[in-house]
Amino acid sequence: MGYMQSEHASGLRVRDSERPTRPALGYGERVSTLARRNGDVSFWLTGIPTPAQPPPLSRDLDADVCIVGAGFTGLWTAYHLARSRPDLDVVVLERERVGFGASGRNGGWLTPAFAAPRERLVRTYGPEPQRALERALRESVEDVLAACREEGIACDALAGGVLRVARGPAQAARLRAAIARERAWGVGEVELEALDADALSVRVRVDGASFATWSPQGVRVQPAKLVRGLAAAAERRGVRIFEGTAVRELRP
Questions:
Q1: How far from chain centre, in Å, is Cα 122?
Q2: What angle, rounded to 10 degrees, do the helices at 223-236 and 72-84 form?
Q3: Which residues are bridge partners to 166 per DSSP?
Q4: Which of 17, 196, 201, 217 sits most deeply, having the most CB atoms within 10 A of its CB?
């Protein structure tokens, strides 16, 4: 049973880590869509080579920062810590493989969209915090692209924007209402463009389409390539990543 225990004010100790109780799946192997089950490897991961898995952590280890999970959240945290504080000893522990979970099964797009409705957030926190959140989300898209350029991460990024198409009256009404809300919030034509059927057909012809909106703030990515490239960039900056290493317990 592995656990992390505080050894001193700035360090963590990891003990007796072991491989997962079930074997990690070899997601470099191509499997048919029909044979793939929920929980198996994703479409993105089957499309790229799988590097040999290094040995798991099998000894006691002290670190300044220990991060559990080698997905986007954990790896971006490790990467930026290593950039801003290269003196820190940063360790990432992952039960399966880098990007095995949600980060390797992502939808493949990078946008500043937020899950909760803006109106709800404004009622709860006020307009200025919401504006700050939206600025941070837009900047985060640029930050990801900048890191990819700087670190040489080839993740098939294509900054083509986001196109939403209405193919019926109800869909068109919802898109027009969304445009009205954005305009009331101060979003201009440069950030969100309304397209009638003729303007849409210049970009792409969609059968039955009557209305569309386009925003430049959208990027297509291959998420498995991005998460793998991010892991490699973090390792080049001194982060140590241990795959096949299950964390059994966290202690304050």
A1: 25
A2: 30
A3: 211
A4: 17
The position carrying tokens 């044979």 is 35
Read off the pLDDT band of 24 (50, 70, 90).
very low
Place of tokens 């809300």: 181
The crossing angle, in degrees rounded to 10, of helices 223-236 and 127-151 is: 70
Whether pTM exceeds 0.90 = no
pLDDT tens digits, 114-128: 889 999 999 999 999
Which residue has better confidence, 37 or 182? 182
User: Looking up tokens 């929920």, which residue turns up?
Assistant: 38
Distances (CA, A) of 88 to 48, 73, 83, 147, 226: 32, 18, 10, 20, 24
Report angle CA 128, 134, 138 to the nearest 5 degrees: 145
Cβ atoms of 105 and 51 closer than 8 Å: no
- Rounded to 10 degrees, what is the CA torsion of 101, 107, 113, 116? -60
C-alpha closest to that of 64 among 77, 45, 51: 77
Q: Which of 59, 60, 35 is nearest to 46 (CA)?
A: 35
DSSP line for 120-186: HHHHHH-HHHHHHHHHHHHHHHHHHHHHHHHHT-----B---EEEEE-SHHHHHHHHHHHHHHHHHT
Q: How many CB atoms lie within 10 A of CB 99?
A: 29
Nearest alpha-carbon partner for 89 in 117, 64, 123: 64
